[in-house]
Structures are given as structure tokens and as C-alpha cells.
DNA sequence: TTGTTAATTAACAAACATGTTAATCGAATG
DNA sequence: CATTCGATTAACATGTTTGTTAATTAACAA
């Protein structure tokens, strides 16, 4: 399972942690926040929070702006849009899916 | 990090593995497939594939239909739509985000 | 300078994820 | 009935993630 070079999979993995998902939700709802501001989101140490932010940043999900001694994090909109495109794309398939299912099933007695 | 009861986080985590993302993409593109049909997607054993399918199923991302000795897997459309709604929702925020960023930064010298 | 604040990196333990092979189980086939 | 097929569960090794505390770095304030 070394193929983690797929950007979409990396993003999903980053969002798969509840704390990191909460971080992104917070940034979506309240706008840019410093690392310290996000501290009350989860009952974890500052280093742990810092690591989560690093994961989100390396996945391209959040942007980091350095302001003196603070790091201001904000959502990276294109990353979310890419996820949206993937998930709602090929919608025409969905309706056809269940029909196609029956072709795979044995006739009912 | 015990809060894994968030359904959205569970789904993202499931899609965060490259093999599982490939499985979902395959089901989206070609429609329902049996566990065996999906075997050529990754160079892993049948038990490993079976485990991935179980993760996807428990996350609500795929449906499993039993047909005699086969298990037919297909995409669970609402799950993908839920992800789409999350990712593209609150779009009005995005444009405002960068403006709000400046309010967090110190004046430039 | 000295001390405080914001955030990170380093080192390490515990928990989780993912892969393997062997064993199991029901359905199909000769 | 004995065997093969499709898929899963069991047991276990290994690598990755996530958390902790301690140390480090840079900016700020006295």
C-alpha cells in the first residue's frame, strides 16, 4: 500500500481523522484561525494539534500564512472543490447502477 | 481520538486508502462487480481485498448483495452525495475567506 | 538582557491498519 | 459424495498514526 501518491486519496485520508475534519469544519465556518485558536477543538496537546495541521497542509487542504510568530490557517477552496467534483461526478451512472445490478444477479427461482 | 462515530470521518477514512478509492472508482465506472472481479485492481491477496470491501461496506459507501456464493458490490449513491454536499456546501464562505484572512494579518511594515 | 508567548520539531510508547498464510464455509460441479 | 470455486474469518507480523513530554526556535514585552 505504497501508492499514496494519489492526491485524492491523500486528501481523504487527511479528512478521515475526526480532529482534522473538525479543524476543516471550523475553518469553513469561522474563517482563518491561528493554530492556537484551534486548540479548543480537541482535548489534545499543542504538538498534536500542530501535527494535524501539518497533515492537512501537506494534503493541500489548508493554507498556512505566517504572521510574525503566528501561523494562520485557512481552507484551500480548490481542494474541497476537487473532492466535490469527484463525489458528484458521473451522476448518470448512479441511476443506472441498480438496473445493472440485476444483470449480475441470478433469476429469482 | 476515540470520536470515530462521525459518519463523515469514517467515510473519508475509508476512501483514504488508495486501494479502496480504486475500488469505488471501478464500481462507479463499470457498475456492480463481484469481489473476485475486483481482484485485479491491486496486487493483494483475496483476504486483503475482502477486508477492504468490508471497510467500505461498514462505512456505508458500498452495498453488498449476496448472490449464491458471490457477493456483488455496488456504489451507495447517497454516501457519495453526502460527501459532495459537505465539500461544496457553504460556498459563500470561500470567496469571503481570503478577505477575512487579511483581518488576521498584521499591516505590511 | 530576561522572561513570556506561539508554534514547532524530536524522541518515544501505545494503538491501529494492512498485509500475509492457513483454516473455514456454503454453493457448484463432476 | 468428493472436489473445486468464491469469499470470508482467524491468527499473526510489520509498518504507520497518534498521542505524550521535553527541547527548540522566533517574536514580543519588560
TrEMBL record, chains A, B:
GO molecular function: DNA binding; DNA-binding transcription factor activity
One Pfam family linked to the record: HTH_20
TM region(s), chain numbering: none
Domain named HTH arsR-type: residues: 1-95
Alphabetical keyword list: DNA-binding, Transcription, Transcription regulation
Top-level taxon in the UniProt lineage: Bacteria
InterPro entries listed in its UniProt record: ArsR-like_HTH, HTH_ArsR_DNA-bd_dom, HTH_MetalResp_TranReg, WH-like_DNA-bd_sf, WH_DNA-bd_sf
Record protein name field: Transcriptional regulator
